[in-house]
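Q: How do we represent a protein-ligand complex in a form that can be generated cell by cell?
A: Start from the inputs.
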Amino acid sequence: MSGIAVFGAQWGDEGKGRFVDFLADEADVVIRYQGGNNAGHTIIVDDITYKLHLIPAGSLYDAKPCVIGNGVVIDPGALLDEIDGLAEQGTTIKNFMISDRAHMVMPYHKLMDGLSEDNAGEAKIGTTKRGIGPCYTDKAARKGLRMCDLLSDSFADKLKIILDEKNNELTKIYGVDALSYDQILRDFMGYKEKLAPLICDTSLVCYDYYKQGKKLLFEGAQGMLLDIDFGTYPFVTSSHPTSGGVSMGTGLPPQVLTEVVGVVKAYTTRVGAGPFVTELHDEMGEFIRERGHEYGATTGRPRRCGWLDLVIVNFSVRINGITSIALSRVDTLGEIDKVKVCTGYEIDGEIVNNYPASLEDIEKATPIYREFEGWSGDISHIRDYDELPEAAKTYIEFIEEQTGVPVGMIGVGPQREQCILRQKYYV
Ligand code: IMO
Ligand code: MG
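Then emit the C-alpha cells for the protein with magnesium ion bound:
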C-alpha cells in the first residue's frame, strides 16, 4: 500500500495539478480531499490545456478511478459544467465518485461570498467568490446541505427552511432580492438526476482500496499558507489544504500516508489580499509575472509575485511532515541575473525563522536574503538532473540543505512530460 499526498506548500498555484497528473499515471485512484472550485489546476497534455477546478487531475487518464471526498465542497452546477467542458475537449469522465457526505455550495453561498467581499472595504479577503467560505461556514454551523440530502425525499423541505433564513438575511442585511425557491429546487432536481449515479460513501470505497493495498494519490487544493488554522488568518481559505486534511477529508486513517509531497514554486506567488514578506513591487515582480504567465486559472487575476521564502517552506515542512519537495517553475527563473532566496525574517531587530501567527508581526518582517547566480538557456528539454545548469543545481541543493528535504521532482516546463524525476514514488 502506498498513499501519496500532493499538496501546496505556499499560497496555492504551486503547480500541484501537473505533479498529480504526473504521478496519477502510476496511481490506482486519485482523491480530492478539500476545497472546491476555488482551485484551478492547469495541466497541458499534447498541447491541449485542461483547467480543472473540482475534478481530480487523474481523470485525464482513461477510466482511472477518481474520487471527490467528504472534505470537498461541491457546486453541482459548476461540476456538471466542468464535466461537459472536458467532454468538449475529448475527455469523458468515467469511474468518478462523489462523497455523499460532501457539502453542496448553494446559490446563496455564492451570492453572499460576493456581497460580503463587496461590503468589506479594507478587510476584503480577495476570495474567488465561488461561495467556498459561506459553504464551510454553514457546514460548521450545522446548516449545510450535503450530497446525501440531494438524494433524499426530504430535500425540498430542508431547502425551504434554510432558504427562508438565507432570504431573510439577503433582504434585511444585504438589501438584495430574495432568491427563488422554485428555481433553486428545479435546478437541483436537474443536478440530482445527473449526479445521483456518482454519489456514494466514498470513505468506504477508499477504505476498500486501502485494504487491498492499492496505490492512492491525494490531491490537495490551495496551499498550506491558506489553511484556516496555519495560514495567514483571516486571509485564508476555509478548509485544510494540509496533509492533516487528508484524513479528515476522506475518512481514511492517518496511517494511510506513506509520502507527503510538498509542491513548492521556485519563487512565491499569491492571489488575493494578505501579507507577503518577499513580494516584489518592482520590475522584477513584473518580469516573473509575465514570464511565468502568473494569472489566476480560476479568476484570471494577476498574481502577486516575489522571491522564494524558505521561512514559509520550512513551516510547511514541519506542519505537514513533507518527505519530498516537488519544485515547479525552475524554467521561469531562467534569464534572471541574480536570484534571491529568503532564509529568515528580521522583526523588531531579531532574527526569526519560525513563521509568526500574528499578521502584525508578519507585516513588520524584513526578509533576509541569500543571493544566487541565475541560469540561462532553455532547460525545458532536460530530463536528467545532472544536465541542469550548475547555477540551477546550486539553487536546488540550497533548498534541500535549508529544508532537510530532498527535491524529488522538478518542473522545467508546463507540459506533462517536462519534469525531472529524481526518486521513485510508488514502491
Ligand atoms: P489552487 O488549488 C491560489 C485564495 C483566494 C483568497 C483566499 C480565500 O489553484 O492552488 P476562497 O475563495 O477560497 O474563499 O478565497 O484563498 N485562493 C487561492 N489562491 N490558489 C488557489 O487554489 C486558491 N483558492 C483560493 O485568492 O485569497
Ligand atoms: Mg490555481
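The pocket of magnesium ion (ligand 2) is lined by residues 12-13, 39-40, 297 (CB under 6 Å). DSSP finds 13 helices and 20 strands in the chain.
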